[in-house]
Specification:
The complex is a heterodimer of chains A (470) and B (201). Chain A has 470 residues and is α/β, with parallel strands linked by helices. Chain A contains 16 helices and 19 strands. The longest helix of chain A has 17 residues. The radius of gyration of chain A is 21 Å and the shape is globular. Chain B has one domain: Alpha-Beta Barrel (Aconitase, domain 4). Helix content of chain B is 33%, strand content 16%. Chain B contains eight helices and seven strands; from the N terminus they run βααβαβαβαβββααα. In chain B, strands 4-3-2-1-5-6-7 form a seven-stranded mixed beta sheet. In chain B, a hairpin with a 4-residue loop joins strand 5 and strand 6. Chain B is globular. The chains are: A alpha/beta (470), B alpha/beta (201). Bound molecules: iron/sulfur cluster. The site of iron/sulfur cluster has 13 residues of chain A, from helix 12.
Chain lengths: 470, 201
């Protein structure tokens, strides 16, 4: 029977299938951060169970850590400190791979995993974090799990799973200038809705996806969860192999050759069956922003704030509530919306290519007066590389703050937060009510679009600021 | 884990669609290293004003719904993050059942690990139960897990689907990890085979 890529990875990791279809799936990599793991380690301790495979478990603190240079003197918020200290202790006691706060390799767990070569094609990867979908960019089956499941994986290196259905999202043609991976992934969610992928694993394919860098592919898969999917996948190709090769934990020598031979088989068969298909033309995708409080509230930057009455069902009330929360009027042009904060970072857009894209727009410009703007590199290594390439200087010259690595204002569990009513152009992945701080208002967009907004002080079509095609 | 068999209780209506995990339990409450005590912060930003006073309009602040054990909710309940703090907060408040047309995948799975039952029903039936819930404290909805049914206040019986394994664990209060460890031989032999097939992992 022809198989999809998802089917192939699934089959290669199936430990056992019960007569009722309940499956036990083997997990190759388990990533752990400080917020969703303390109760799981405590559970192991209480039940006297062992960690089955510490060598397949990787821990890094990211959500709570401050991103200001003074963090080397310790974390001031007592609750955050307790969580990070709990991770330190658990990592040591259970003997897992660990990147503590002051290690240059520390960063957002979904940036650190691929960077260190922990994430490889054909693997199963889980983490107590919904954006684990990011790792699907390597052709790895990767998804978020809850804390009870974290404990289950720690104890058994498996997960009890039901198989999802197969969905194909194809992006044909080439992206126009100024349009990026972020615009693709947001446009897909705009088309399917936040529940459109529920019950599915999505494979992204088509020319526009093939043409993306690994960084861009990670941006795409990162937001699969925002469309409700269990995971997003992209078949590995030469770009994938080139990215992986030479990373600290990537296979070497004869093992590399053996791995490569298998990785090359990891693609959906020509005649594979799909339960759902969505096709978008890259030419039709514009730079987009969100206007509401759900990632599905997406429109091209050239559009206007929609009228809630134009929706149907429960969405009418949700849109009304969203406009009230966001302080917007139906019919207002999106480019007339003034902002007071810009946040460039997160596991969606905190990689080197994202910083390059933003810096290319910012070069020679200044941040609009009175605006707060910050760049938070996704890892210490991204930060170091950006400094070496001169990007940090461009940000600093423009008036951005240049921070240390962490989740930062993506979710405001750390000191980086919006105040009530503050409006932010953000490169992160969620615009939920209160996500970036109570009462804070979030517009999601690409790094280039966020840079353009920093210059003008309002939502801006980046294409108007481009001197040469991106 | 607590067993779940039957429940007859007050249902609170929350017709809003896409109620996300940041609404259910905002991130400032995720800094705990325990599973309990989150009920007081359930729906915090919808339930309390910035000074910590109750917002009277919010459904769970209304006298009729303070003891609700069931939520009837709009589409796509629990979307967003993987935080198990969301079901922990609901359970700690006393909610054991959520009824909706659809749930986000991770939230749905997390419920079962905490003795909670998320129930998916077709739209017209959810609408009917939403109307029931609006009637307040005298309207009690009944759930029977064994027979997989929800009974509305006017006696209509709505059957729901459920994965047999999840049902079995919930009915008997079984711990997944213990069950999986019974299959440890299979995991051992899988690992041995995988080490040969993919030694680089
Ligand atoms: S950057 Fe944001 S979305 Fe990504 S792991 Fe951190 S908090 Fe989650």
């Amino acid at each position: 029977m022809p198989k999809t890529l998802y089917d192939k990875i699934w089959d290669a990791h199936l430990v056992h299938e019960d007569s009722d279809g309940t499956c036990l799936l083997y997990i190759d990599r388990h990533l752990v951060h400080e917020v969703t793991s303390p109760q799981a380690f405590e559970g192991l301790r209480l039940s006297g169970r062992k960690l089955r495979a510490p060598e397949k478990t990787i821990a890094v603190p990211d959500h709570n850590v401050p991103t200001t240079p003074d963090r080397e003197q310790g974390i001031k918020n007592p609750e955050s400190r307790i969580q990070v200290e709990a991770l330190d202790r658990n990592a040591r006691e259970f003997g897992v791979h660990y990147y503590p706060v002051n290690d240059i390799r520390q960063g957002i767990v979904h940036i650190v995993g691929p960077e260190q070569g922990w994430t490889l094609p054909g693997m199963t990867v889980v983490c107590g974090d919904s954006h684990t979908a990011t790792h699907g960019a390597f052709g790895a089956l990767a998804h978020g799990i809850g804390t009870s499941e974290v404990e289950h994986v720690l104890a058994t290196q498996t997960l009890i799973q039901q198989k999802s259905k197969n969905m194909k999202v194809e992006i044909t043609g080439s992206l126009p200038p100024g349009v990026t991976a972020k615009d693709i992934t947001l446009s897909v969610i705009g088309a399917t809705g936040t529940a459109g992928g529920t019950g599915y694993v999505i494979e992204y394919c088509g020319q526009a996806i093939e043409e993306l860098s690994m960084e861009g592919r990670m941006t795409i898969c990162n937001m699969a969860i925002e469309g409700g999917a269990r995971a997003g996948l992209i078949a590995p190709d030469e770009k994938t192999f080139a990215y992986v090769k030479g990373r600290p934990h990537a296979p070497k020598g004869a093992q590399w050759d053996a791995a490569l031979a298998w990785w090359k088989t990891l693609k959906s068969d020509e005649d594979a069956q799909w339960d759902k298909v969505l096709t978008l033309r890259a030419e039709d995708i514009a730079p987009v922003v969100t206007w509401g409080t759900s990632p599905e509230d997406v429109l091209p930057i050239t559009a206007s704030v929609p009228d809630p009455a134009s929706f149907s069902g429960g969405k009418v009330d949700a849109a009304r509530r969203a406009l009230e929360y966001m302080g917007l009027e139906a019919g207002q042009k999106l480019t007339d919306i003034a902002i007071d904060t810009v946040f460039i970072g997160s596991c969606t857009n905190g990689r080197i290519e994202d910083l390059r894209a933003a810096a290319a727009i910012l070069k020679g410009h200044k941040v609009k007066d009175g605006l707060r703007a910050m760049v938070v590199p996704g890892s210490g290594l991204v930060r170091a590389q950006a400094e070496e390439e001169g990007l940090a200087q461009i940000f600093l010259d423009a008036g951005f703050e240049w921070r240390l690595a962490g989740c930062s204002m993506c979710l405001a569990m750390n000191p980086d937060q919006l105040s009530p009513g503050e409006r932010c152009a953000a490169t992160s992945n969620r615009n939920f009510e209160g996500r970036q701080g109570r009462g804070g208002r979030t517009h999601l967009m690409s790094p280039a679009m966020a840079a353009a907004a920093a210059i003008t002080g309002r939502l801006t079509d980046v294409r108007e600021m481009m001197t040469q095609p991106a | 884990m607590d067993k779940f068999t039957t429940l007859t209780g007050i249902a609170a209506p929350m017709p809003l669609v896409n109620i996300d995990t940041d609404m259910i339990i905002p991130k400032q409450f995720l800094k705990t290293i325990q599973r309990t005590g989150l009920g007081k912060n359930l729906f915090d930003e919808m339930r309390f004003d910035p000074d910590g006073r109750e917002i009277p309009d919010f459904v769970l602040n209304q006298p009729a719904y303070r003891d609700a054990q069931i939520l009837v909710a709009g589409d796509n309940f629990g979307c967003g993050s993987s935080r198990e703090h969301a079901p922990w907060a609901l359970a700690d408040f006393g909610i054991r059942v959520v009824i909706s047309t659809s749930f986000a995948d991770i939230f749905y799975n997390n419920c079962f690990k905490n003795g909670m039952l998320p129930i998916v029903l077709p739209r017209d039936q959810v609408d009917h139960l939403m109307e029931d819930a609006r009637k307040g404290a005298n309207a009690r909805i009944a759930i029977d897990l064994e027979s997989q049914t929800v009974t509305s206040t006017d006696g209509q019986v709505f059957p729901f689907d459920l994965d047999p394994f999840k049902k079995h664990c919930l009915l008997n209060g079984l711990d997944d990890i213990g069950l999986t460890l019974e299959k440890v031989d299979r995991i051992d032999s899988f690992e041995a085979k995988a080490a040969e097939a993919r030694p680089w992992v």
